Every structure is written in structure tokens, then in C-alpha cells.
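Technical annex B. To support the medicinal chemistry partners, we prepared a structural model of the target in complex with zinc ion, based solely on the information shown next.
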Amino acid sequence: MKKIILTLSLIVTFFIISDASFGQQKGNGQQAKYVFLFIGDGMSQSHVSLAEAYLATQRGVIGNDFVSFSKFPTVSLVSTFSLNSYITDSAAAGTALSTGNKTDNGMLGVDPKGNKFKSITYKIHEKGVPVGIISTVTLDHATPAAYYANSNKRGDYYDIALQLPITGFEFFGGGGFIDPTGKEKNMPNIYKIIGDNGYKIARGVSEMKTVKKGEKVIMLQQAGKEGELPFAIDRKDGDLALKDVVSAAIEHLYSKKGFFIMAEGGKIDWAAHSNDGKADILEVLDFADAVEVAYQFYLKHPGETLILVTADHDTGGLSLGSTKGYTLNLKALDSQKSSTAVSKDSTEAYLALNKKAFVGWTTTSHSGIAVPLYSIGAGSGNFNGRIDNTDIPKLILKSMRIPF
Ligand SMILES: [Zn+2]
């Protein structure tokens, strides 16, 4: 009798322990069918912490108010160095994140000799899984381009754009193209080429609603607006936000086949290059709103959905606290109502505000510190620990049960 009781209590204990370890996120060991990869360009942990501290300040308290993805149960740290520099650019980092290979800064989806690597999006697409590629900056920019193009020069925007319509990927969305008719403005218009290759061009949320499921589509801003989406701090009524595009992509791509969606918050990086603290914070919060849309999808499909949130590198060498002392005074940013990009105020005025807030910047370029990776859902346990950026695409395919 004693033996039976002991055995029973061991079994009960086992189930209690299993529930505690695995119960928090459903489907951790299952195959990932719906996969979201969110890349905050330039968003190292200091950018996330600053946004969290800002939210707490808005409530009048000291602390970190978590954003959508900081609540995710798995957190890891990712090395970002490139093949020829400890400090990567977005092209080499994008190549690592999309193909699992390091390369030199400036190179996109190719090794330093120009030999092409294959993005995991192609391997996913070959298995019949629809692919969506989204960015708040233009689609020919390094991060989104790394998921469909190969180029020896990340700045060959027209050549990169020409590679988009031949992918056959089902959904593109975001900021259009930098050189729609080439650097010399003498080449065939890229929008026409995309249309000729069977893509619908949907401008704004309302036009997107008229696109039939199964049609290949590129979703851009409303007519009359070209180029990247505005900074969150500068957004006007009718402007697209990242969350609108992610929402549209989910609706358009959702089927029994699953999907892979890469969505980039590209302007976190731009705000940080300008050392513009307030614009940076609002970009991170906007990016978190887009992740929240994916999280709501995860709640409906917890056993089959994987959400990953990471960055390609740090931008700005951002610190919370600067020069001397133990103060962070984010209230000082309250008076700022627009980004440095559109404001008539001098850049010096913004830098002075950041100083007053004790938001520190050490560079107007990138820095080499590791970046966080937050994850939840099917296969997220694969991403735990101290990893390299080249591990991420390999682990995505592993989670989807697709060979690398
Ligand atoms: Zn950058």
C-alpha cells in the first residue's frame, strides 16, 4: 500500500512539475506552422528598456512597463558581428538572419566574392508555405531585401527591386521603392514591372480590402505618398502603420498551409542614427503594437504559432543615463512633438532635450553589443540561450520542420 501511495505521489509530482515548466506556453515542442519574425532595426535591449521606462514615466512611476513582446516567456541574446567587422551594417546582418551566413558589411545575400546565398524564405516557399515581407522603410532596403534578393552592393536599389516580382512571394508591404526608375531615372518603371508579373498593387487599407485571397499583392501607402512610412511621432490620419500592414498580411495569407511573415521596424534605426530619443521610443512602441497583432493571432492558434522578436544590431550606442549621476528624466522629452526629420527646429535643440532627459548616445552609427531575441509559441524553446545571428534562420527552419 505504501508503495502504491509513493508511486502515485511521484506521478502527481511529475505532472505538477511538467505543468509548471511547459504549461506557460502552449505548443513549445510542436511544429511551427504560422511564423512571425519581427526585426527591430537597431533595437538592442537599451532601446526596449528606454521605451519601457518611458511608459512608466507616463504613469508617474519609476520602472519598466513591459511592451507586448517583453512579456514573452523565452528571451535569448544574439551576437551580431559581421565577417569583416565587429560592428555590422544592416546588409551583413540581414544576410546572417535570412541565410545563416556571415558576410562583409555592404553585401546582401552574397559572400564577399559575390557567390549567392539562399534566403530561408525560398526554402519555406518551396514547401508550399506562403511568404510575406514587410517593412516600414522601402522594400529595397537591406533588411527586407535580404529576404528575397542578392546583391554585391546594398545600394543598388533598382537591381534589388527587380528581383522582387520574380520571387512569387504572396505578400509584400511597406514603403515602396527608392529608385523606381533607376538611379539615372531612365529605366522601366518598377511598379509597372511588378504589375506585369501578376502582382496587384494595393494603396492603403481600403484598396487592400478589394484584393482577393490568393492574389499576389504589394501593399503600399495611399496614393500620392511614396517612400517609407512616416515616423510614428509624425503620423497623420490615413498614414499606414506597421500594425496595419501586419494585420492585412495575416488576413491575406491565413490558410491551412501556414505562413512565414518577416516584418521590420526599420525606422527605429533611423531615429537612432539621428540620436532622436523621443522618435526612437515611439518607434519601438509602434513596433510593439505590430507584435501585439501577431500575439492576438497566437492566442487563437497557440499550438501552431511561433513569434520571434529580435534586432539586426544596435544603433546609436544608446544608454539610459549619461555623462554623470544617477538620473533619468524622460519627462524632459514631453515637449517634443515631431521627429528631427520633419521639424524646423535645429538638431541641436533635440540633442539638448536628450541631454536634459539623460538619454545618452555614443555614436550616430551602429554599435556591436548583442541584441535580445524574445519568443513565444511552437518551437520557441529552440531559441533559448546565447546564440549567434546565423543560428536564427536555422532554428526557424528547425521549428518549421524544414531542412536547412
Ligand atoms: Zn542603421
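Notes passed to the chemistry partners:
The two ends are 53 Å apart (CA to CA).
Residues 42, 90, 269, 273, 315, 366 surround zinc ion (CB under 6 Å).
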